Amino acid sequence: MTDTPRLRLGTRQSPLAMAQAHEARDRLCRAHGWDVHAVELVPVIASGDRIQERPLAEIGGKALWTKELDAWLVEGRIDAAVHSMKDVETLRPAEIAIGAILPRADVADVLVGAASIRGIPQGARVGTSAPRRAAQMLHHRPDCTIVGIRGNVATRLAKLQAGEADVTLLAAAGLDRLGEHGVGTRLDPEEWLPAPSQGAIGLECRSGDARTRELLAAIDHAESRWRVEAERGLLASLEGTCHSPVAALSWIEGETIGLRAAIFAEDGSERFEGTITLRAGDTDGAERLAEDLLARASTNVTRLFGG
Ligand SMILES: NCc1[nH]cc(CCC(=O)O)c1CC(=O)O
């Protein structure tokens, strides 16, 4: 056996990112009959992890999660990069392609600190830096106050413990991957729509790297990919940024995909929702839903979209 890895897989270094990288590595090794050393995990520090004090939307958005890994990929220092698809911008460099979407985990959000949305104490401080979670909470609970909390999952739970907020919202997928089962209350995704691509892990590679594309294709999960592509198509058509409160849920129905989405005013005072059925692989359909939502929304909401 040679010690030369067959694939160098770049990842962020947070505990959640590392758990996702391990899952990707395990799936690659299983699919190709490799020994664990065949995939070398290459931790790369992302600016998003370095700058923790300010909200992501203020300091440069989702690109802060990907730009270092993108550079390493394009420079050939890694063969593939693993990402939470929720954190990956819809507009990607032409040199980079999504090689695989892993079978999707639970898409739901989890409420920590109260048993239900209604059960949150009057006037509670809700710790979140996500515009979607903030707007959604204010829509249901206008009495609450939003306080920004950032950091990785453990940091956010610690900040809650320390009393920086009364309740917080986290992705079930992230908690599950960290082995934090039984934390908080899972919110039914049909009632509390999650973020587009929540719970989906993607592996990117160089568009022109046929060998890696083939290796990644072996772990691509078609149904998860269709759903993620539909949700990303919607986000792209909305021209949403990290300031735009967008929620989406998709499901497979035989040969078609159902896609439901909602857009909000920042303060939750308005909410516009729509549903569409798409043929699998039809990315234009998401655009029709986006146009329909924007056509019905007030300028208070549409001003948050359009780049
Ligand atoms: N923005 C951070 C982030 N990006 C992806 C996840 C969770 C994992 C996933 O959605 O796959 C999280 C943490 C959270 O929202 O609680």
UniProtKB/TrEMBL annotation:
This is Porphobilinogen deaminase. Pfam families: Porphobil_deam, Porphobil_deamC. GO terms for molecular function: hydroxymethylbilane synthase activity. Belongs to the HMBS family. The keyword Cytoplasm does not apply. Residues 7-213 form the Porphobilinogen deaminase N-terminal domain. GO terms for cellular component: cytoplasm. It comes from Qipengyuania oceanensis. The keyword Transferase applies. Coiled coil: none annotated. Monomer. Keywords: Porphyrin biosynthesis, Transferase.
